[in-house]
Amino acid sequence: xxxxxxxxxxxxxxxxxxxxxxxxxxxxxxxxxxxxxxxxxxxxxxxxxxxxxxxxxxxxxxxxxxxxxxxxxxxxxxxxxxxxxxxxxxxxxxxxxxxxxxxxxxxxxxxxxxxxxxxxxxxxxxxxxxxxxxxxxxxxxxxxxxxxxxxxxxxxxxxxxxxxxxxxxxxxxxxxxxxxxxxxxxxxxxxxxxxxxxxxxxxxxxxxxxxxxxxxxxxxxxxxxxxxxxxxxxxxxxxxxxxxxxxxxxxxxxxxxxxxxxxxxxxxxxxxxxxxxxxxxxxxxxxxxxxxxxxxxxxxxxxxxxxxxxxxxxxxxxxxxxxxxxxxxxxxxxxxxxxxxxxxxxxxxxxxx
Length: 353
Known about the structure:
Strand content: 5-15%
Helix content: 55-70%
Order of helices and strands: HHEHHEEEEEHEEHHHHHHHHH
Radius of gyration: 20 Å
Number of domains: 1
């Protein structure tokens, strides 16, 4: 699922979920029981990083990655002012993804479907520890006429409620990509506002990217910093195209068409144009790697990008205002808990493109 690392959010324990389970439908009950089973698997398979590093049966690559993560945790605590109780353990799930996430939206609307969860409020995705369950949920939503996107997710966060372990699913990343993921997930434990997916993910993205820059500079790795900035620049260009397409689709859906088929053709033209422009920016972009890529993009998949990047420029402006003072930056972000979603979007929404 590209670089997106958002995952299912869970309560502290069974007792926190019990009131919701007592009043939920059969389908909802099954969802929460699979979530608890998945969390129990992670707990059961986790060992402290120290034990894993001392185990002669663990391969050198895993040990090298864990040593790097220990370095990143120390930097996050000392320089980024982030809580670091997570990532002190390692869990090998022996699969490529920890969860599979479902996004959905109406066929002619870019507004994503939302699901409600205890403690964290409404989120614009539904996550499953079993791929088959996610595919079945996606199929059910498609039968209702929704645009649907189902993708595997490498990282998983309980937002600081639990001590999340390092997972085998993200150890393949480069040093900078791994640093960004660790800083992103630790940021969720710093500030999280229930019910505002775009705010939470954009804050974590902006804070993590800034953290990677600071970390690379602290190491004197200027070559690594240049490579990271170049990669971010290319990603942002393509992300800009995706967000522009989302804006264009809002206009398409606001028009009155003589037939559903005409509206579908207008919708498809927006996606075809987006992909053509993306190919011009980066012929090897992941956005093109699937066969018949234009047919794999829909309103739901657009939201996998919008959830993470719509407010990122706003957070970057806020960080610049504080001239790199992370404590002041985090305080102002935390103070936005007092605002509603619309007020936060007004402050942090992207300027007109």
